[in-house]
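Q: What would this chain look like folded?
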Amino acid sequence: MKKAWLVLVAASVLLLLLTYFIPNDLINSGTSDEFERLLSEQIQDSSAFNKEVQFYKDTIDVVDSLVLHQSPIDSLKENNGIDSLEKGIKAYGYTDNAGLDHFFEKLQKLEQTQKGQIRIAFFGDSMEDGDMIVMQLRHFLQRKFGGMGVGFVPMTSVDARGRYSIKHQFTHNWNKSDFLKKGYGRFHFGVNGSAFYVGDSLRDDKATVKFVKGGAYKELPLINPTLFYGKQKKDETNSKVVAQARVIIQDTTKPLLLQPQKILNSCKLPNLQKEISITIEDQQSIPFYGVSFASDNGIIVDNLSVRGNSGLPLMKLDYDLMRSFDKYLDYDLLVLAYGTNVFSVENKEYGWYQNRMLKIIKYMQKCYKNANVLVMSMGDRSTKIEGEMQTPEHLHNFIQMQHNIAKKSKSGFYSLYHAMGGANSMVRWVEQDSLANKDYTHLNSKGAAVAGKMMYDWFMINYNHYKKQKMKKNG
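A: My prediction, written as structure tokens:
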């Protein structure tokens, strides 16, 4: 097993070096065969991807065999005098359900009728890299309530190589503007805070993205693929440019008709294919946002997390564009999972962050009028204090502040911190259970799978409580 991982790491390093040294001006030059050859050199090797998928399948099998992960239960017992994780989740992540009534009501209707779609937008940071926590949550929700597809995927992503839920490949000559940078860029940011476009004075005017069916579990076909793009923006540099798009399915190339007249436009792609490639030729005139893979019925979970995000850049999302996205996606729940890029050992006062997040939640509720909001706390974190790895004393206060954000905004609240076991649980996750990385902040793939399963369990505990309360109310 170690040899296999060493080979995989070596291959990844070699691949990274190769992609770095391939000049961008060569990627789209020459014949179509040459372009496909260069693209294949830039993307992840299929055998390596399949090994990663098998590793994650093995992880899922392990998590599936557990009713709940034992270590957090023990930690809750030891630290809080709680005799089950269910009671612990109720004590520290429990909501009175008022903030999630709409979501639970639709969930119950879906469970009863098996008809209709429920869509969840999961906004977060590097804790959700690689779709690992979200993938596990999606897996169990779709397994119980139905639904197929990985949801919304941006045109490019920094964590694409580590994602098992879909094989996401792209040439490196896409231009990207995102809301983490200063200013607002050439185009409005899409639902995940990014806009992608093709062509400028330094790059070629052609770029490709490719999606291949994920193999982590069976609910991941490329179902109902829909390309989202924005309104065309012409100026003196591109006034004569006619943007073109092509879709490649099983070596067959077909043109796509782009109609970029509205602030948000969509284009249906061939359904239920093993892989889809999209090539765009343009000169900075149209923003492209991503592709949605979603069944008409069941649960869909869009991972809209962005590495380095504090949550504050959400205010830079354009209201009219978000309203247009919501007409297509119709979100029922917004999960706001932040804190990793806000909390620091040096700072102890976060009233400013609480005030700004309250304004952001209010704004997001205007953008997505039918959606409930769930605030998810950051997990435990350890740093060296007096020679030992420990949880900073004021992290507990930060988690309480996140809880206050949820209460004041009448949102649901889920505490990953307490689900992990509270103070100093990260040390155990790293050193005893091998569930987290040596930075004592981020979970590894196995730990992310456990965290995703615990979040699903939290949902089910609160959903079942909602149903019981509803029965009592109805007499």
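Confidence is low (pLDDT under 50) at residues 5-86, 88-95.
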